[in-house]
Specification:
The chain is α/β, with parallel strands linked by helices. Helix content is 43%, strand content 12%. It contains ten helices and five strands, in the order αβααααβααβααββα. Strands 2-1-3-5-4 form a five-stranded mixed sheet. A hairpin with a 5-residue loop joins strand 4 and strand 5. Helix 2 packs across helix 3.
């Protein structure tokens, strides 16, 4: 799949650091049309630093909606992918097989940095790129308007609550003291309204590093997804 020129212009606004003109953000990744996706799988920040994206912005944009092209383009970066990232891909494959659903993989902050330490420093000093990374995620949410946001892992959950906690409907503040495994068992944790009035269901899961191929230990989590999508 290749992106249309109109969509390319939107993606370009999301991926570029407008001060330098360099690619600084990874707004999302999927394998198909993200406007048709009902499910977002959300981490805290991008794991992969896609240095080779700088060579061809249009290729980068196309790869964000084409799983095979993404794998081919960033093969070197993917060699060092974590168990969690691989687990995300397993979950995405499972959703495709069982629901014919193209999950959108994204992050509460879409800023791509060379290291977790650099990301932490930029957060500490409220760097403009850090703030823009948060803004891009919200823009992506409103643009694609999914039905479900899955916050995978404690870091993503805490980052999301920090950014959106005061806008959630039905959210109990004491939930911040519970483990993600406990939150996973609760099903829909809260809801958040989009600018167009649509309401998104927020659910929490453990890190996808535990999902494996079929998510055998994610029974209640999968039941929650089924109830919403059915």
């Amino acid at each position: 799949m290749t992106v249309s020129m109109g969509f390319y212009k939107i993606i370009k606004q999301w991926v570029i650091d407008h001060e330098t003109g360099n690619i600084a953000f990874q707004p999302f990744q999927t394998d198909g049309n993200p406007y048709k996706s009902k499910v977002f799988l959300v981490g805290a920040s991008p794991e992969l630093n896609l240095d080779s994206a700088e060579k061809n912005l249009k290729l980068y944009a196309d790869s964000l909606v084409d799983g095979k092209l993404f794998q081919e383009t960033f093969a070197q970066e993917l060699q060092g992918a974590s168990r969690e990232y691989k687990g995300c891909l397993n979950f995405i494959s499972w959703m495709k097989e069982h629901y014919n659903e193209n999950v959108v993989l994204t992050n509460v902050n879409c800023l791509s940095t060379e290291s977790a330490q650099m990301f932490k420093q930029m957060k500490k000093h409220e760097h403009p790129l850090y703030k823009r990374g948060l803004q891009i995620f919200e823009e992506v949410l409103n643009e694609f308007a999914p039905e479900i946001v899955i916050l995978q892992g404690s870091s993503a959950y805490k980052a999301f609550i920090e950014q959106f906690g005061d806008r959630l409907d039905g959210f109990e503040g004491q939930s911040t003291n519970e483990t993600v495994q406990q939150l996973e068992q609760k099903g829909v944790l809260a809801k958040i309204p989009l600018k167009n009035g649509k309401i998104i269901n927020i659910i929490v899961s453990r890190s996808m590093s535990y999902f494996g191929k079929e998510g055998n230990s994610f029974g209640e989590f999968k039941s929650t997804i089924n109830r919403i999508l059915q």
